[in-house]
Amino acid sequence: MSNPSSKPRWQSLDSDLARISRVEYANAHVARPMLAPGIAFAFIALAGLTAAVVFGRADGGLIVVAAAGFGAYMAINIGANDVANNMGPAVGANALTMTGAIVIAAIAESAGALLAGGDVVSTISKGIIDPASVHDSTVFIWAMMAALISSAMWVNLATWVGAPVSTTHSVVGGVMGAGIAAAGLSAVSWTTMSAIAASWIISPVLGGIIAAGFLALINAKIQYQDDKIAAARRWVPILVAVMAGAFTTYLAVKGLNKLVKVELEVALLFGLATGFLTWLVTVPWVHRRSEGLENRTKSLKTLFGLPLIISATFLSFAHGANDVANAVGPLAAIVHTAQFGDFAAQVAIPTWVMVIGALGISFGLFLFGPKLIRMVGSQITKLNPMRAFCVALSAAITVILASWLGLPVSSTHIAVGAVFGVGFYREWHAERRRKNANHQRLPERRQAQEEKKRRKLVRRSHFMTIVAAWIITVPATAVLSAAIFWTLTAFL
User: Fold this and answer.
1) pTM of the model as a whole
2) pLDDT tens-place string over residues 241-276
3) What is the pLDDT of residues 166-221, one digit of tens each?
4) Contacts of 248 (CB under 8 A, 6+ apart)
5) Of 152, 199, 357, 382, which is least surrounded by CB within 10 A?
6) Domain range annotation of the chain
């Protein structure tokens, strides 16, 4: 016969086990947010250890170890912030899952950096600071260290706030501030800085106009046609051919400098040839893909999904090839100066430095990238595959136009400006359609239309936050860099 007194003991044990389970669940819930920073710190420490192994006990070894750690920190922030501009539209349009976008971007960014990244980099960010104005190599090292730290901190802050900013502009501001602190205002090339400041307006406006223009073309030639499928069979191959030609030219001009030097005119010829071949291939593909589709706008989205994924991959490859070198420029400058005791306008990028940049971007993307990907892809304005396709195509064409005109532009500003352009075009187009509609509606329908009219298709709070972050990026990083430089030189 069972002992009645055992029942309360079992109930007490069950209660204790339940409490232990709740404690373990609470600990796991609290520890989860610390996992990503912990992995990031481990990678930063590994980068410093790599530098220590490479340099050993050579003079300046400790400085290089610290710089490698901050370089890894910078690369992580690039992955968290900058890559969202390439993959955000594809995720927002549901052409890619978040996991798929992160995997593709990590592979493409790393491949671009390691295979096609520049073998030399401007240590003074495209001529902002005159090297002759800095006479002491130690001062130069501290200036580059301040630029590296300040730009990384600013991009980290922007990611936390939820604002995609230009990594290149952050480095530019950091170098300018440290240069002024080290050698005075006369050390800065204000002509170059004026051109960079002009790009704050040129980049997003050009990107927005071109993206809106392509969306207007798609609406007029495909979406609003009576037979949408027939129109798509005629126009989608042309649009995909334009995309292929634009990305061929884009990669030749901006992404393959290490492998081969190509003039813009030659790149355009390659682009035309690639576009024609793509059109020949795409025509039968679109016909097969469109068989059995219903004559409605939703059916058209399936025709733009694959081209959108391909374009996002190319954008990530070109970004890795072009922007990673800019990001690790200060680190490469510190390594060169510590190793050879002098400094120059351009230095070679050691392989291990480029590996830190490439892997750091991948880690940053995996650990912190989803926040900005969601911001660019869905929180600024609603995107579908057609609108996202216009954003990606605009990014490539705008860079080509800027290279032809000799204008310094930011890929971040272009991509986000294109998203804004698509959203504002939708607002303008919706307002135009409302005005042209029949005004003789029932009171309930009029009220619904007024409510719809008050709803904006571009979230103004995100628009103002991002624009404000763009405007203050260079001044903020310059001030922060100058303060860090004075601190380093005062206490070290």
Assistant:
1) 0.83
2) 999 998 888 788 766 656 677 787 888 899 999 999
3) 888 888 899 899 989 988 888 888 887 887 788 778 889 999 999 999 999 999 99
4) 267, 270, 271, 274, 275
5) 382
6) 39-491
